[in-house]
Each structure stands twice: as structure tokens, then as C-alpha cells.
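If your schedule permits, I should be very grateful for your opinion on a structural question. Thank you for your consideration; the sequence and its C-alpha cells are set out here:

===
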Amino acid sequence: MTATDPQSELPFDAISTLAGTGDGTKTASLVGAILAGSDYARSQLSALYLPAVTAAIRRWVRREQRPAVRYRLEQESEEMVNDVLINALKAIADAKFAYRGAGSLSAWLNTAVRNRVIDRARFWERRAELPPGAGGDGDSAAQMPDDGPGPRTQVERRERLERVMAELARLPEEDQLLVELHVWHGLTYADVVVEFMRETQVELSEDAARHRCQRALAELGRRLRELGS
């Protein structure tokens, strides 16, 4: 595969972030390039799925009912995101993950996110004391590869992502879930309805899911434009 221009914008501006992650063609090309040994493709795939993994981690952390455990999970959320993405890239590069479309990678990532959060919650549950701000546990997360974008670019992308996430969090919780499922996990509206009902126990038709998701995206886009994101 011929890599795209390294200077081209990765999906971290508001529009690309909301539209890019579910692009199966792009994902397939990047997976193929990673199997061929492309470090640039690794950084692009990581960037492409960063918003989806970040949203999924945050959603699982919010489910934690024990305040002390939830506090710890919140503190290490970014490390868990890195862990999941690094493990995904390694699984692809080592041909341990069989790519069968963008949905297959999203499903793998969803499972990896769930398992990582549950594992960390169990770890903190076993700890006798959980004082806020206490020192580390010795389980330092692996760092992202050095061959990705420079520190300034990473900071700018992180800031843009944080603005998107902050505005998304202002939407009604059910609308947040619809956007995450359809846009960042690349699910069809039929699959969105299945996952939405499983998460919320609220019945929703496919047409209603489409209407609510599009309305939520329009509102999110309006807010981001006002912020200049």
C-alpha cells in the first residue's frame, strides 16, 4: 500500500473525528500495511481508533459503583487506552487478530476495553487501602511507539479530542451512547439498536435510532463550531 502524505490531517478535527473511525476501507488498508511492517500505518490506525477506545473506557469506568475504585480507574484511564491500542497493534502485526471488516476490529476492541477495565477494577478492589492521590502500584502501562507524531502534534490532537469528548458529555446520556455506537464503533443502525437496548433496556426502533443519532451529531457539530474546533 502507498501510504498517504504524513502531513495530511488525521481524523482529529471535529468533522473527521465524527466521520472517520467507521471507515472500513481505511481500516482494511491500514491493517494490511501493518501486516507488511508499516510503522506509519500503526500510528494512523492508533489515531483512527483513539476516540472510540477513549469513549469506551470512560463509559465502562462510569459504570463502576464503588467510589474508591472508580477514582483509581479514572486516574489511569489514559494508560488503559494506551494499553488497549498497543495490544491491538501488536495482535494485528503478529497476525493473531483476523481482520474481517471494521466491525470485527471494533468488537475486538470492545472486548479488550471491557476486560482491561474489569481487570483493573479487580486489582484495586483487592487493595486494602485506596487513598486518593497515593503512589503508583508498580503496574506501569506501556508507552505508545516513538515513531508516531511529535509531542506538539500529540498534545494538539489530545486537546481537540478532549473538546469533542467534553461536548459529547453534555448531550443526554442515551444520545451519547447512540453516537458512540454508530460513529466511533462503526455499527449499522440495526446493530446500534441491539447494543443500545442491551445497554439501556430501553426499546428503540431503527428509524428512531437514526433520527436521534443524526440530531445529536448535528447538535454536537454546532457546539464544536461555536468553539472553533
Q: What stands out?
A: The CA atoms of residues 169 and 176 lie 7 Å apart. Residues 14-134+143-227 form one domain. DSSP finds ten helices and no strands in the chain.
